[in-house]
Structures are given as C-alpha cells and as structure tokens.
Design goal:
Blueprint lengths: L2 E8 L2 E7 L5 E7 L4 H41 L6 H4 L1
Antiparallel strand pairs: 1-2, 2-3
Length: about 90
C-alpha cells in the first residue's frame, strides 16, 4: 500500500480510497455507526508509521555505509591504477 488517499464522511458512510504501490486505487465504504471504520483507520495509520520508520532506517543505513566507505578510502588513500591502464 502506498497511501490512504482519501477518508471522508458523506451522509451515513465513511469512504476510504487506498492507493497501492502499483498506483491502483481501492475504494470502499462503511457505515459511520459501525466501529470497524475506526479500526481500519487506526491500522492504516500504524501501517504508514511502520513504513516511515523502515524508510528512515534504510536511509540511515545507506548513509552509514557511505561514511564507512569514505573513511576507508581516506585511511587507505586513493587506489592506484595498474600500469597498463595508465598508459
């Protein structure tokens, strides 16, 4: 799931539009009086929070990897090309 594009109340229904990672939209509705629309909303928010946390962790890991690579290059100096490549 990419996002919940729309959550709105019209009349006696709550409408949700979920956008998948492939860009497809899934529309559904439920009566406002029933409690499961709140449960759906909470679960969608929790899902989006988990996705955001994973994205931040992934970005941090990539940054740490780049920093380690830079530190290794600074410690070992630039790599020299072989004599056949420099001619």
């Amino acid at each position: 799931m990419k996002t919940v594009d729309c959550v709105e109340r019209k009349g006696k229904y709550v409408y949700f539009t979920v956008v998948t990672s492939e860009g497809k939209e899934i529309d559904f509705r439920c009566p406002q009086e029933q409690g499961w629309n709140a449960e759906i909303t909470l679960q969608l928010v929790q899902y989006k929070n988990r996705q955001a946390i994973l994205a931040v962790k992934s970005t941090r890991q990539k940054q740490q990897h780049l920093v380690l690579q830079q530190q290794q290059q600074q410690q070992h100096g630039p790599r020299l090309r072989s004599a056949s490549n420099s001619a």
